[in-house]
C-alpha cells in the first residue's frame, strides 16, 4: 500500500470508522441483493421418469425438471425406447457417482417422459451442465450432440457447452439422453434441466452469459490495474497477489460449468482437459494467494509459518492438477476449499493484529473481507463434493464468488482513493510551501545581487587605487619629474599595495567560486607559524606608516586544514586590525592548541565596536566598508564572508570588543592532524 502517515487523532479515527461502518451496512445490502436474484423459476417433481405439465402455464414460467429420472448404467438405450414406469431411477440434478454410487468413469442413459398441455407456446429444454459428452434424442430423433459419446474411451471426446433444444409441437415428449464421462470427476446431469417458453429460455441464457462476461471483464480490467500498480509501486507485492486472484476468478467465469464458456468458444482447438486444468489449478492456489496478499500487506505483524504451509499445500495440489486427469484431481476440490478457508481465517487474524498494532487502515480491509466472506462460503457450500446441495426455492443464487470479490475490491478501491486524496492534499500543501520558499529564495537572490553590486563597488575602488598610484608615479618618472632615489622610495610602497591588491583579487575569485559553483574543502599539511608570519610581513609597510607593532611569539606547528581559506581570513583580520588601530598602537597575535583544537587570536587596541555593530558586521550579508583611523578605505571582502568561509570549512569566527578599547577575533577550528 502507499504508506501515507495518517494525521488524524485516535478519536477522529474512531468517529470515521463508526461512520464507515454505518455506510458499510447499506453497501453490503446492495451487493447482497445484487448477488441473489429473484427468479420466477418453478419446479415440478419428476416421479419415476415422468412429469405432467399439462396444467402448467409455460407462457412466461420456466419449470425445473428435478426429481427421479429413469437411469440405465452402462447401457445406451435405443432412441425409440420408452419404458413406461421403471424402477431404475436416479436423482437429477446430481452426479451418478454420488447419487447412486456408480463409478465416476462410464456411460449411461437418462430418460424422461413429459406430458404437455394444448395450445402451448414454442417450448424448449435448457441443459446447463452434463458431464462430459452427450447426445439428446427427442421422440426418437437426434436433436443435439455435444462432444463424442462412446462406450470406449479411445472414441470419446468431452466438450463444454450450455444447450437449449427446441421441442416439437406435440403433447408428449420422449426425452432420452446418452451420456459418457471418461474425464470429469462427476459424471451425469449435475445441474437441473429446465423447460419453458423458448424465447424466455434464450433470453435467460443470453442474460446469464452477458452477466458472466460482465463480471469476467470487470475482474480482468481490475487485474490489469492491480498489476500496473505492482509494476509501478516499489512495495507493490500485495497488488501482484490481488491481481492474480482477479485473473483466476475472471478466467474461471469464462470456463467453469455454468459460466459463459467464452474462452472455449473462442479457442475451440484447445481440448477441454486443458481448460479444466486452468480452472482447477487456479482454484487450488487461491488459498495461498489470499494468504500472500494479506502477508505482504501487513508483513510487519503477519506470521510467516502459516503462509508457508498454505503455499506448500497449494503447490502440491497444483502439481496434482498438472500430472493427473480431471477425474483424479477434481476429487481434491474439498481440500482446496479447506485451504481457501484457512487462508481467509489467516487473513482475518493478520488484519486484526495489524489493527491492534496501530494500522487504522486495516479496519477497511477487515470490513471488505467480512462483507465478501459470506459469498465465498456460499460458493464453497454449493460446490462441495461431500454433501450435494439442491436448492428448490424460487430464489436462485448467481455468481457468489464474483460478487464477493467485487465487494472486497470495492473496499480496496475506497482505500486507494483515500490514499490518493490524502496524497493530493499533501502535494497541494507542499506546492504552497514550495512557492513560499521560492519567493523567499527570490528575495534572497535580490539581496545577494545587491551584495555583489556593493562588493564590486568596493573592489573597483580598492583595486583601482594602487593601480592609479602606480600609473601616476610611472608617468612622473618617465617625464623626468622624479629622481631615482624618490622613485625607489615610492616603489616600495606601491609594491606592497600591489601585493595586497593581488591578495584581494585572489579572495574575490575564491568567493565567486563558492557562490557560483560551490567549493570543496581542500585540506593539506602546512606550517601555521609560516602562514601567520607571511601575512604579517605583507602588512609591514602599512603598519610602519601608522607606527603599529605586532606582538607574537609562535612556534612551528604543522596542521592539516584548508590553507587558502585560513590565509584569506587572516589577511582580512590583520588588515582590519591595522585599519582601526590608533597611531603607535599594538596588535597581538597568539595561537592556542588543545589536543586537535586550534585557536588563533588577533587583538588590537583601537576604536573597538559596540554590540550592535558586532552583530551587523558578523551576521549581515551586506559588505560593510568603514574608513579607518586615518581615513583608510576598505580593503577586504567583509567579516561576514570570512565567517562564511570558516563555517564551510568546519571552523568558526568569534568576536569580542569594547568601544574605544579594542577588538579581539578568535579563529577556532579542529585539525585532523597536529604536529608540533
TrEMBL record:
Molecular functions (GO terms): phosphorelay sensor kinase activity
Catalytic activity: ATP + protein L-histidine = ADP + protein N-phospho-L-histidine
CDD domains for this protein: HATPase, HisKA
Record-linked PANTHER family: HYBRID SIGNAL TRANSDUCTION HISTIDINE KINASE C (PTHR43547:SF2), TWO-COMPONENT HISTIDINE KINASE (PTHR43547)
Histidine kinase domain: residues covered: 458-673
Transmembrane stretches, start-end: 27-48, 211-232, 239-260, 280-298, 305-323, 335-352, 364-382, 397-417
Keywords from the named record: Membrane, Phosphoprotein, Transmembrane, Transmembrane helix
Enzyme class of the recorded protein, top EC level: transferase
Parts forming coiled coils: none
SMART domains hit by this protein: HATPase_c, HisKA
Organism from which the protein derives: Chryseotalea sanaruensis
Gene3D superfamilies named in the record: 1.10.287.130, Galactose-binding domain-like (2.60.120.260), Histidine kinase-like ATPase, C-terminal domain (3.30.565.10)
Name this protein carries in UniProt: histidine kinase
EC number in record: 2.7.13.3
Domain of life, per lineage: Bacteria
Amino acid at each position: 500500500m502507499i504508506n501515507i502517515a495518517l494525521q488524524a487523532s485516535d478519536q477522529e479515527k474512531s468517529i470515521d470508522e463508526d461512520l464507515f461502518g454505518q455506510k458499510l451496512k447499506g453497501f453490503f445490502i446492495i451487493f447482497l441483493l445484487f448477488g441473489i436474484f429473484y427468479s420466477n423459476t418453478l419446479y415440478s417433481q419428476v416421479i419415476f421418469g415422468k412429469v405432467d405439465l399439462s396444467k402448467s402455464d409455460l407462457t412466461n414460467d420456466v419449470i425445473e425438471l428435478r426429481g427421479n429420472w429413469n437411469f440405465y448404467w452402462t447401457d445406451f438405450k435405443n432412441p425409440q425406447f420408452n419404458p413406461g414406469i421403471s424402477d431404475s431411477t436416479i436423482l437429477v440434478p446430481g452426479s451418478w457417482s454420488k447419487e447412486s454410487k456408480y463409478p465416476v468413469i462410464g456411460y449411461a442413459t437418462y430418460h424422461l417422459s413429459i406430458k404437455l398441455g394444448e395450445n402451448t407456446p414454442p417450448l424448449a429444454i435448457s441443459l446447463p451442465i452434463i458431464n462430459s459428452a452427450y447426445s439428446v434424442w427427442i421422440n426418437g430423433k437426434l436433436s443435439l450432440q455435444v462432444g463424442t459419446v462412446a462406450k470406449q474411451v479411445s472414441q470419446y471426446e468431452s466438450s463444454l457447452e450450455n444447450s437449449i433444444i427446441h421441442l416439437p409441437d406435440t403433447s408428449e415428449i420422449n426425452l432420452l439422453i446418452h451420456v459418457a464421462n471418461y474425464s470429469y470427476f462427476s459424471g451425469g446431469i449435475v445441474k437441473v434441466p429446465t423447460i419453458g417458453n423458448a424465447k424466455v429460455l434464450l433470453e435467460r441464457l443470453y442474460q446469464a452469459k452477458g452477466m458472466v462476461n460482465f463480471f469476467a471483464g470487470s475482474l480482468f480490467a481490475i487485474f490489469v490495474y492491480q498489476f500496473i500498480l505492482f509494476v509501478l509501486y516499489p512495495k507493490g507485492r500485495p497488488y501482484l497477489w490481488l491481481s492474480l486472484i482477479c485473473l483466476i476468478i475472471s478466467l474461471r467465469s469464462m470456463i467453469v460449468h455454468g459460466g459463459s464458456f467464452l474462452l472455449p468458444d473462442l479457442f475451440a482447438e484447445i481440448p477441454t482437459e486443458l481448460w479444466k486444468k486452468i480452472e482447477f489449478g487456479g482454484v487450488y492456489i487461491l488459498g495461498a494467494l489470499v494468504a500472500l496478499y494479506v502477508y505482504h500487506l501487513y508483513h510487519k505483524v503477519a506470521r510467516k509459518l502459516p503462509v508457508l504451509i498454505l503455499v506448500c499445500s497449494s503447490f502440491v495440489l497444483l502439481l496434482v492438477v498438472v500430472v493427473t486427469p480431471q477425474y483424479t484431481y477434481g476429487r481434491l476440490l474439498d481440500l482446496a476449499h479447506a485451504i481457501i478457508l484457512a487462508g481467509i481465517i489467516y487473513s482475518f487474524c493478520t488484519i486484526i493484529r495489524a489493527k491492534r498494532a496501530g494500522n487504522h487502515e486495516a479496519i477497511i480491509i477487515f470490513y471488505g473481507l467480512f462483507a465478501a466472506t459470506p459469498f465465498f462460503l456460499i460458493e464453497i457450500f454449493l460446490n462441495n463434493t461431500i454433501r450435494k446441495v439442491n436448492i428448490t426455492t424460487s430464489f436462485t443464487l448467481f455468481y457468489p464468488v464474483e460478487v464477493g470479490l467485487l465487494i472486497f475490491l470495492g473496499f480496496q478501491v475506497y482505500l486507494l482513493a483515500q490514499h490518493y486524496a490524502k496524497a493530493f492534499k499533501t502535494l497541494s500543501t507542499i506546492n504552497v510551501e514550495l512557492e513560499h520558499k521560492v519567493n523567499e529564495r527570490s528575495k534572497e537572490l535580490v539581496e545577494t545581487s545587491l551584495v555583489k553590486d556593493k562588493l564590486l563597488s568596493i573592489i573597483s575602488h580598492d583595486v583601482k587605487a594602487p593601480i592609479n598610484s602606480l600609473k601616476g608615479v610611472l608617468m612622473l618618472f618617465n617625464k623626468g619629474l622624479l629622481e631615482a632615489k624618490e622613485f625607489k622610495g615610492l616603489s616600495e610602497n606601491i609594491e606592497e599595495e600591489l601585493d595586497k591588491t593581488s591578495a584581494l583579487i585572489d579572495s574575490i575569485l575564491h568567493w565567486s567560486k563558492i557562490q557560483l559553483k560551490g567549493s570543496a574543502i581542500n585540506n593539506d599539511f602546512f606550517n601555521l607559524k609560516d602562514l601567520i608570519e607571511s601575512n604579517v610581513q605583507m602588512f609591514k609597510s602599512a603598519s610602519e606608516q601608522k607606527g603599529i607593532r605586532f606582538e607574537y611569539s609562535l612556534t612551528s606547528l604543522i596542521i592539516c586544514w584548508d590553507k587558502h581559506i585560513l590565509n584569506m581570513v587572516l589577511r582580512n583580520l590583520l588588515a582590519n586590525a591595522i585599519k582601526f588601530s590608533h597611531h603607535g598602537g599594538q596588535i597581538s597575535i597568539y595561537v592556542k592548541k588543545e589536543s586537535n583544537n586550534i585557536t588563533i587570536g588577533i587583538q588590537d587596541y583601537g576604536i573597538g565596536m559596540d554590540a550592535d555593530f558586532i552583530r551587523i558586521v558578523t551576521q549581515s550579508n551586506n559588505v560593510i566598508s568603514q574608513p579607518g583611523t586615518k581615513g583608510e578605505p576598505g580593503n577586504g571582502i567583509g567579516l561576514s564572508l570570512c565567517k562564511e568561509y570558516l563555517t564551510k570549512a568546519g571552523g568558526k569566527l568569534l568576536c569580542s570588543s569594547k568601544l574605544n578599547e579594542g577588538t579581539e577575533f578568535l579563529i577556532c577550528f579542529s585539525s585532523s592532524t597536529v604536529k608540533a
